[in-house]
Amino acid sequence: MSRVFVAGAGSWGTALGVLLAREGHEVRLWMRSPDKAEAVAEAGENEAYLPGVPLPDLLTPSSDLVDVAGSDACLFVVPAQHARHWMEELRQASSEAALPVALCSKGLERSTLMPMHEVLAEAWPEARGAVLSGPSFAADVARGLPTAVTLACESQAERERWLSLVSAANFRLYASDDPFGAEIGGAVKNVLAIACGIAIGKGFGESAKAALIARGFAELQRFGLAMGAKQETLSGLSGLGDLVLTANSPQSRNFSLGLALGQGAEPAAYLRSQRSVAEGAATARPLTEKARAAGVEMPICEGVAAIVEGRDGVDETIAKLMNRPLRAEGAGKS
Ligand SMILES: NC(=O)c1ccc[n+]([C@@H]2O[C@H](COP(=O)([O-])OP(=O)(O)OC[C@H]3O[C@@H](n4cnc5c(N)ncnc54)[C@H](O)[C@@H]3O)[C@@H](O)[C@H]2O)c1
Ligand SMILES: O=P(O)(O)OC[C@H](O)CO
């Protein structure tokens, strides 16, 4: 049995905490508010983020960051735009310990354009980072439905430790030595899922969505390969696998955001009305800035960035995409 600190008690942190506690690990599920931690403990359930899932006895809700100090491992599940601050806090609370930290958040930091493992390297340099990513809705994992995801880190010994810690009967981990590639897939698929939601919200139908998935995957590969990710990672669970899941389901917050935008919702108002995070909204711009700096074209992601930031309307963006010069298929440069 290990002691695991789960930083972040949204739906994914809670589902992962429940999974580990069911496997016999002692879990501290950290959230910012002491009142909420108390209420969740009393209810025996995280009603706000994962309703209907009883918390196992081995899971203790906590608002005390110092609990990280005695832990064997940490799952980091705080939304990407708040990650740096809480990594710095965890570093202090853990006495700067070289704790194994699995990054489970999917996004790029807006101010620096960095993926989470680069943020971790700056904010908590002693931590030993890994990436846990792949097609996995929190509600599915909490219900014990069969799920497979990627666990990526450079050290083989660390990978093996993570595999034995987090794998469960219906939660299958595949190992990868490409943490960067695993992160890129999760960040880009969220932006593409918004595009697919927009197409459905506009009533364009399944053929349009399939075209967006295929051309979006070409963008994901172009960008990932230019950044040094491995092809096998991009076409694996954390890339193609997660794109297929997220781009096809209203269960996805990113797809649902797109759906609402396609139906005429105003982006800022819709985002303000949501308790849950749709990471693609904040990641779209840093992603496209990073791509442009690397000379990689990502027209679908550019369109999503313009729409969610209110710089362009849905109709204008679609017209721009459809009027691009005709070209050969393939991931290529553009
Ligand atoms: N939900 C899923 O199915 C799922 C699956 C895989 C990965 N993820 C990723 O996990 C990460 C967390 O998402 P989630 O779905 O668990 O969250 P959520 O949308 O269910 O809840 C949002 C969480 O963010 C917290 N939060 C808001 N502002 C904050 C701040 N300033 N500092 C710290 N925390 C703050 C809220 O308290 C809440 O716990 C995201 O990067 C998401 O992409 C989610
Ligand atoms: O609800 P979404 O769009 O954040 O997607 C959740 C997970 O990332 C799916 O793997």
Automatic annotation (TrEMBL):
Please tell me where substrate binds in this chain: K106, R253, N254
- Gene Ontology terms, MF aspect: glycerol-3-phosphate dehydrogenase [NAD(P)+] activity; NAD binding
The cross-references to InterPro entries, in alphabetical order and at most eight, read: 6-PGluconate_DH-like_C_sf, 6PGD_dom2, G3P_DH_NAD-dep, G3P_DH_NAD-dep_C, G3P_DH_NAD-dep_N, NAD(P)-bd_dom_sf
- What positions does UniProt annotate as the active site of this protein? K189
Pfam families cross-referenced by the UniProt entry: NAD_Gly3P_dh_C, NAD_Gly3P_dh_N
Q: Which positions make up the signal peptide?
A: none
Keyword Cytoplasm in annotation: yes
Q: What is the enzyme's class at the highest EC level?
A: oxidoreductase
Positions that bind sn-glycerol 3-phosphate: K106, G134, S136, K189, D242, S252, R253, N254
Q: Where does NAD(+) bind?
A: G8, A9, G10, S11, W12, G13, A138, R253
Alphabetic keyword roster: Cytoplasm, Lipid biosynthesis, Lipid metabolism, NAD, NADP, Nucleotide-binding, Oxidoreductase, Phospholipid biosynthesis, Phospholipid metabolism
Q: What is its EC number?
A: 1.1.1.94
Q: Which residues form the Glycerol-3-phosphate dehydrogenase NAD-dependent C-terminal domain?
A: 178-318
Q: Which residues cross the membrane?
A: none
Task: State if Metal-binding is listed as a keyword.
Answer: no
Q: Where in the cell is it found?
A: Cytoplasm
Principal location class: cytoplasm
Q: Report the catalytic activity.
A: sn-glycerol 3-phosphate + NADP(+) = dihydroxyacetone phosphate + NADPH + H(+); sn-glycerol 3-phosphate + NAD(+) = dihydroxyacetone phosphate + NADH + H(+)
SUPFAM superfamilies, from UniProt? Answer: 6-phosphogluconate dehydrogenase C-terminal domain-like, NAD(P)-binding Rossmann-fold domains
Q: Where is the Glycerol-3-phosphate dehydrogenase NAD-dependent N-terminal domain?
A: 4-157
| Family listed | Belongs to the NAD-dependent glycerol-3-phosphate dehydrogenase family.
What protein name applies here?
A: Glycerol-3-phosphate dehydrogenase [NAD(P)+]
